[in-house]
Hints:
- The protein is an all-alpha fold.
- It has a domain at 166-234.
- The protein has helices spanning 2-42, 46-59, 64-76, 80-93, 98-110, 114-125, 133-146, 150-163, 168-180, 184-197, 205-213, 224-231.
- Helix 5 (98-110) packs parallel to helix 7, helix 9 (168-180) packs antiparallel against helix 10 (184-197) and helix 9 (168-180) crosses helix 12 (224-231).
- The chain starts with a helix and ends with a helix.
- The mean pLDDT is 90.
Amino acid sequence: MFRKNKKYLIPVLILMIAFSCSTTEQKKEADLHYKLGLAQLRSDQYQSAFVEFQKALDSDGGDKDIYNALGYVYLKWDDPGNAEKSFSMAVKLDPDFSEGYNNLCLVEYQRQKYEKAAAYCEKALSNPLYPTPEKAFFNLGLALFKLKRYNDSIDALIQATRRKSDYYPAYYEMAVIYNLTGDYGNASRSLERAIAFDPRFKGDMEKAEQFFQNGGALPWCREDAAQILEVFKY
């Protein structure tokens, strides 16, 4: 039987090898465009990044990281609809892709759908292998704050700092919430930690206060800057 079909074996192997080489080349090309897109993204060149990510998808449409990066561009363009489509495709390709769920949290947060945002953050945190859980805990804290669940918000932010002790955005937000709830001692201590870990200030309280007095803001919520200025008084 084997001898009878032997003449078909070599053509099939050649086809398999050719397909494998073609797939490898496509992945290499996709990876090149993806890396070029990331470089443009870091330089805030969002249109150039978008073009590179689209080229990457043309070469390899099954890569979750490319869809995730493309979704981030849409977020920067304030286009939550297309951002959601991209992040949803990323988690469809990999149901354990925590970064994709965390970014879906950001989409819903932008839409002011805070319950859905919190649910996506919790989905991201359900994966014990998530390498940067502090980001999802922080975003969860923001969503819970908007829902006026202040104690739960503080708990989430504390968890962010337990995962990464110098994660200064969480300390800033804790300072805001403690100030709003009248816990001025913890507000002051949280602000001191935020400024100590913030690479812009490196513990220089005067420099930080000047920054906020001159219109500086927290990138995730400009309104929180007014609360931060109040904490400097304590």
